Amino acid sequence: MVRQGNSGTRGWGPKASAKAKASGRQARKPVSPVYRRRRLFAAAILLLVLALAVGGFAAISNAMNGATPQPAASGSPRPETPVITGTASPQASATSSPSAGCDQKLLTVSAATDKAAYAAGENPLLTLKVTNGNQVPCEVNIGTSQMEYLVTSGSDRIFSSKDCQAESSDLVKTIRPGRSETANFPWQRNRTVQGCAAVDAKPAGGTYVFTARLGNKTSPRAVFQLG
Q1: In what helix (H) or strand (E) does residue 188 lie, and over which residues does it extend?
Q2: b/e code 99-134 from CB counts within 10 Å (16+ = b)
Q3: What pLDDT, on the 0 to 100 scale, is given for residue 166?
Q4: Which of the 8 DSSP states describes residue 78?
Q5: d(Cα 195, Cα 200) in Å, to the nearest integer?
Q6: What is the pTM of this model?
Q7: How far apart are the C-alpha atoms of 150 and 222, rounded to whole Å?
Q8: Is the predicted pLDDT of residue 61 greater than 80, yes or no?
Q9: Which has the closest alpha carbon to 111: 164, 160, 148?
Q10: β-strand 156-160 against 138-141: which pairing, if any?
């Protein structure tokens, strides 16, 4: 009885346990280099996918926020219509009728440039101003249908805003006594001819004259220099 018990306990003793552990280590095969490389490759692919996802989100976010850089314009379009930027005169009161007793001779037109001389490549800003010299409000048509910006050099007609005018419209405004309306035209230092045919020649440096016209009124000459 005692021997059988000893033999039974001998089968589950420390030696048997050590054999089991050894057999377990033998059952687990070592990781091969090929398997390791496959795991590293899979991990690299996962990191790349995550990076692309984050980058795509950042690009979409920038586009929604207007942060995506826009390509630079190859050239600015040539403006062919004046831009009225002068101080708008308040409307006349109901008790005074615009143009009632308005003397058209007291409506004056003047021409001016923002500089007396311009460096090479610098574009002049041409300004037309109409002033009401009457003692009463006057209605004046200051639309593009009435305006002309004319640049000459001696007897040479260099430029006219009428040659390539994109639109022609009326714009009637009430100008109070002593007040003015102005309209600016950025000249691109280009030549034009009637009918808006293409002109390759560019104005050279020298003395030029700007004349503004509004309806049947013509301004005094404004002289400026081009470098």
Answers
A1: none
A2: eeebeeeebebebbbeeeebeeeeebebbbbbbbeb
A3: 84
A4: -
A5: 15
A6: 0.61
A7: 11
A8: no
A9: 148
A10: unpaired
Question: What's the Cα-to-Cα distance from 36 to each of 40, 189, 215, rounded to whole Å?
Answer: 6, 71, 88
Strands 156-160 and 117-118: unpaired
Please count the other Cβ atoms lying within 10 Å of the Cβ belonging to residue 29: 7
* Nearest to 148, CA basis, from 132, 180, 126: 126
Phi, psi of 168 (to 5 degrees): -140, 115
Length in residues, the chain: 227
Average pLDDT for the chain: 75
Q: What is the pLDDT of residues 123-176, one digit of tens each?
A: 999 999 999 999 999 999 999 999 999 999 999 999 999 999 988 899 999 999
Name the residue among 79, 98, 108, 65 with its Cα closest to residue 174.
Answer: 98
Q: Which backbone phi and psi does 101 adopt, to 5 degrees?
A: 80, 15
Q: What are the φ and ψ backbone dihedral angles of 180, each rounded to 5 degrees?
A: -135, 160
Supply φ then ψ for residue 103, to 5 degrees.
-90, 115
* CA dihedral of residues 64, 69, 70, 71 (deg, nearest 10): -160
In this structure, which amino acid lies at residue 135?
Answer: Q
Under a CB-based contact definition with an 8 Å cutoff, are residues 124 and 114 in contact?
Answer: yes
What the block records as the tokens of 7 is 């033999």
Q: How far apart are CA 106 and CA 140, in angstroms?
A: 12
